[in-house]
Amino acid sequence: MVQFVVDVLIRAVDLALIAIGLSSVYSLIRFPNVALVQYATTGALLALCLQMAGLPLVVAAIAACALVGIIAVVLNVIVFERLLRAGSAIAMIGSLALSMMFSAIFLVTAGPRPKRFELEINPPLRFLGARLTEHQLMSVGISALAIIVFALILFRTDLGRCMRATATNSVLASATGIDTRKVTNTVVFLSGVMAALGGIGLSVKGEMSAQLGLDMLLPVFAAAILGGLGNALGAAVGAVVIAAAETMVTNVNFGPLFGASVLFIPAAYATAASFLLLVVVLLIKPYGLFVSEVKRV
Amino acid sequence: MHKALLAAACLALSSLPALAQELVLGAVVPLSGASATLGDDQRRGIELAVDKINEKGGLLGGKKLRVIVEDSGGRAPSALDAAKKLVTVDNVPVVIGEYSSGITIPVGQYLVQEGRVHLNIGSSSGKIRGLGDGSFSLIGLDNVSSGFAAQDVVDNKWKKAAVIVPNNAYGQGVAEQFQKAFAALGGEVVTTVMYTEGQTTYRRELQQMERSEPDVYVYSAYGKEAATINRESFELGINATPWYAIYLSMCTSDADPKFIQGQYGLDLNYIGPDGAAYEAAYKAKYKEPFKTSFNGYGYDAVMMAAAAIEKAGSAEPKAISAALKEIGNGYKGATGDITFDADRQRSKQPYLKLKIEDGVQQR
């Protein structure tokens, strides 16, 4: 049971960082940015490059996060701001195109083979019968910290108040003197940083490949939609629910039902389970589990 | 303009094998993807055979031998594209390859259909037996290897086995044959996991297997995927239970020695009684001992094809195929005695029992 909770937690923080970024950007500019998951891969690959260049992993990770944040802002200014004038559907298709370009760039620069950070691997730590590696512990800790910091920014600072005001009614917000464009770009920067951190966290625990981002696309979207698109902290809860569903499906032993000692659903079907859950929840609550700031108006 | 024409003419001339004083064969092996390390080792064997034949003055009265080695990328569609290119553009009579059974089978089917000779040097799925006339296997198929593995596991007094293999023609063959042989010897396969190729993590699969509390984990996986499985089994602490590898050198070719310490396994006996000279040539050229156990089959394939061409006195696929059937009866290859059965499959295949100590295979 403890192992189950640990597995859910590990999976949830990976999903949550990117899902929160997706949801908070959506709340401001009303389109889901598909390319966001590719920022996660970019972050992991940049951190690997910097580590190979001789920087310690922590410094490399911080630098990579900042770089990805800047890339996110630049792309927002030169691509998405223009596309958004034509409508949010156009912007979303544009982000899909951008995401494909990212995939091609990863294949050309990093190649198709999975890569790993240079990290010492040690036997697992035992914690109430559950196994946990140091890297997992570290990655969960850092991700949780990042989520808390983001929540504090959102609810305890001026910037957060401006963000929420812009999300609720951007015309009114700019009439009261808020520079909505600046607020939006700050949030885009933060979403890039969080996506990169998510990608690095994922790679620290295992491997990174050009597919890393695209593999996350569907679960991340499911988490964000489940939490109510536009509601940043709802996305975190959505991530926990999706992670629990995925872990549950591969952990339930169907053996006794069929007279065998052990019989599991193949792990490859884990994502299918989370989508089933998403469909069911959306049928009952079409706007997700939580009412978002966007819908409250 | 004139220059372009001239260049085009040169290109057209150079691609006609009849004009050049050389004899061209083809090979499709995985030089990239999960099995890249193994495919590159196959290429080394092929290269050594070509060097040896050309040193001795080539084939059919002085024609130089050349083998075009194409990359399959470890994917069936690109392997088929490569085979098509070899057949239609280079017009080769013989194609050697691939490595993974799931890819060898479609490539073999295509070659048989085109009337070319196919030499299987790395795949062991039972389905290869049915490829048809023109397709030869220089390697023992998995009914032989799985039976050997089951006996070895039983000899080690392990009763409950959890099996993990790739979800493809090769993995299905191994899982099925091992279960059959193991059950006949009184053992029980408590769980069988077919993993999806090319994932970056197999944690969930390993955790499922662990729940069945086996005495031994039996696995067979391609180089880089096996490396991931071994690392994660270490991270989960389930490597405390013995691990048994079917084709140990394939499963450990990309692994960190720390994660595979103490693993048991079987492997192809890659050096026959007449293989000493080959082993010496390999060490001299590549400055290291055998990387995997698969290079010798590439070497034997080229040597046998060359012998068949000499015997037939022509490079026609039909003639080569007929000559191969005659040669393949007690042929003394680097990998030992090669004798084909009625289905043109190698009938005898010696194996080794191995254990990894300090990162090195011990017999």
Automatic annotation (TrEMBL), chain A:
One cellular component (GO) term of this entry: plasma membrane
Any GO BP annotation: amino acid transport
InterPro entries: ABC_transp_permease, BCAA_transport_permease
Domain of life per record: Bacteria
Pfam families, per the entry: BPD_transp_2 (PF02653)
Membrane topology: Multi-pass membrane protein
GO molecular function: transmembrane transporter activity
Name recorded for this polypeptide: Branched-chain amino acid transport system permease protein
Species of the source: Aminobacter aganoensis
Automatic annotation (TrEMBL), chain B:
Residues annotated as domain Leucine-binding protein: 25-357
Organism whose genome encodes this protein: Aminobacter aganoensis
Entry keyword annotation includes Metal-binding: no
Transmembrane residue ranges: none
Span of the signal peptide: 1-20
InterPro entries the UniProt entry points to: BCAA_transport (IPR051010), Leu-bd (IPR028081), Peripla_BP_I (IPR028082)
SUPFAM superfamilies noted in UniProt: Periplasmic binding protein-like I
GO biological-process terms attached to the record: amino acid transport
Family: Belongs to the leucine-binding protein family.
The UniProt record lists the keyword Signal: yes
Protein name: Branched-chain amino acid transport system substrate-binding protein
UniProt keywords, alphabetically: Amino-acid transport, Signal, Transport
